[in-house]
From TrEMBL:
Its EC number is 6.3.4.4. The gene is purA. One of its GO terms (molecular function) is GTP binding. It comes from Micromonospora echinospora. Belongs to the adenylosuccinate synthetase family. Plays an important role in the de novo pathway of purine nucleotide biosynthesis. Catalyzes the first committed step in the biosynthesis of AMP from IMP. Mg(2+) binds at residues 13, 40. This is Adenylosuccinate synthetase. CDD domains: AdSS. Its main location: cytoplasm. It is an enzyme of class 6 (ligase).
Length: 429
């Protein structure tokens, strides 16, 4: 089997971890290709165990799949080691982890700058998690980043850190009146991480190429989602990497010709964490219903998620942009009990109808959703496992999403558990 990309079709938190876990026993490699510990996947196992993963690929809970952190990820070694230890304490085999030596490190100055700059921006803040992801990617692009492989050479590590802090400490101290970062203490801290991480650092590109040559299945797992993509999302309210399908090739070193399936995950409604435009956002009782019933709080931050109706314009954009072959719609059960379930089928902007994403940030900011209202359902759907077991109105809702997005809906989530799904089409042969 060639490579499969799994990504989010909205602003993140769609339930990608659940889908990865669903496929985990049938794939040989699960590769995280973008983002850092600003992302979070929640996976609930059949025995009711709940795992919140941040840097570790969701495939960590698979009994046999190799788990890989690709070159496109930025890694906070302290966070990663804490996650490794936490999984090991719960009996999860973490010896299958491999990390690209070309993945960039999140350093103390990245975290310090992320927090202070966000506070300085005030009402214009982006809504970052303050974990240093943006500054780490900034240094990567500026060609002054520090990589995992640098942990294996103390001389290079020290030299690169001294060069970086020559500038960063000036900014922290003189611009923001913050304490400068100590070079010696940081080198000592990161060399301690190096000793523990050394067994996991590998040339992951060759590993994945060899796996594909053997006909093994490689699942490429994106963090965040399409609308947070640096190039294709709602810039500047985006993440600092490319979680779209194209980013999988760059962030894992997989050739595009190896990918034959792109699975996108979308909630049956829409959520967003942080700042930025959100046309279908609800501020009424319906929004509270979605938040309360859907337990809409960030896996990584604990922040309340902003909630709104399903935005088919966004979903269709994601399907076309990523070349999606299969759509997974999660949390359909959250809509149970609502008399009407609107779908945003277009926008009105300055009196003009838009059926696709508007070109400019200003237009999108002023977009008013055009809704199509469908009748809701009252039946409990959490026990449904086939499409016929869903209420007629629920089936109509899914069929309409499929029609507008132009992509088949293969799986519908009807609860948080691994088995709580309706399979309409197989995700894997």
């Amino acid at each position: 089997m060639p490579a499969i990309v799994l990504l989010g079709a909205q602003w993140g938190d769609e339930g990608k971890g659940k889908v990865t876990d669903l496929l985990g026993e049938r794939v040989d490699y699960v590769v995280r290709y973008s983002g850092g510990n600003n992302a979070g996947h929640t996976v609930i196992t059949p025995d009711g165990q709940k795992y919140a993963l941040h840097l570790m690929p969701s495939g960590a809970l698979s009994p046999s799949a190799m788990i890989v952190i690709g070159n496109g990820v930025v890694v906070d070694p302290k966070v990663l080691l804490g996650e490794i230890d936490g999984l090991a304490e719960r009996g999860v085999d973490v010896s299958r982890l491999r990390i690209s030596g070309d993945a960039h490190l999140i350093m103390p100055h990245h975290r310090a700058l992320d927090r202070v700059v966000e506070r300085y921006l005030g009402s214009s803040r982006i809504g970052t998690t303050g974990r240093g992801i943006g500054p780490a990617y900034g240094d990567k692009v500026a060609r002054m980043g520090i990589r995992l492989q640098d942990l294996l050479d103390p001389g290079i590590l020290r030299k690169k850190l001294e060069l970086a802090l020559r500038e960063k400490n000036q900014i922290l101290f003189k611009v923001y009146n913050r304490k400068a970062i100590d070079v010696e203490a940081t080198v000592e801290e990161y060399l301690a991480y190096a000793e523990r991480l050394r067994p996991y650092i590998a040339e992951t590109r060759v590993m994945l190429w060899d796996a594909l040559d053997r006909g093994e299945t490689v699942l490429l797992e994106g963090a965040q989602a399409t609308m947070l993509d640096m190039d294709h999302g709602t810039y500047p309210f985006v993440t600092s990497s490319n979680p779209t399908a194209g980013g999988a090739c760059v962030g894992a070193g997989i050739p595009p010709t190896a990918i034959n399936k792109v699975i996108a995950v979308s909630k049956a409604y829409t959520t967003r964490v942080g700042s930025g435009p959100f046309p279908t956002e609800l501020f009424d009782d319906n929004g509270q219903h979605l938040r309360k019933v859907g337990h809409e709080y960030g896996t990584t931050t604990g922040r309340e998620r902003r909630c709104g109706w399903f935005d088919a314009v966004v979903a269709r954009y994601a399907c076309r942009l990523n070349g999606v072959t299969d759509l997974v719609v999660t949390k359909l059960d959250v809509l149970t009990g609502l008399p009407k379930v609107p779908i945003c089928v277009g926008y009105e902007i300055n009196g003009k109808r838009f059926d696709d994403m508007p070109m400019t940030q200003t237009e999108f900011h002023h977009a008013t959703p055009v809704y199509e209202e469908l009748d809701g359902w009252w039946e409990d759907i959490t026990k449904a496992r086939t499409e016929d077991e869903l209420p007629e109105n629920a089936r109509r809702y899914i069929a309409r999403i499929e029609e507008i997005c132009g992509t088949r809906v293969s799986v519908v989530g009807v609860g948080p558990g691994r088995e709580e799904n309706v399979h309409r089409h197989p995700l894997l042969p």
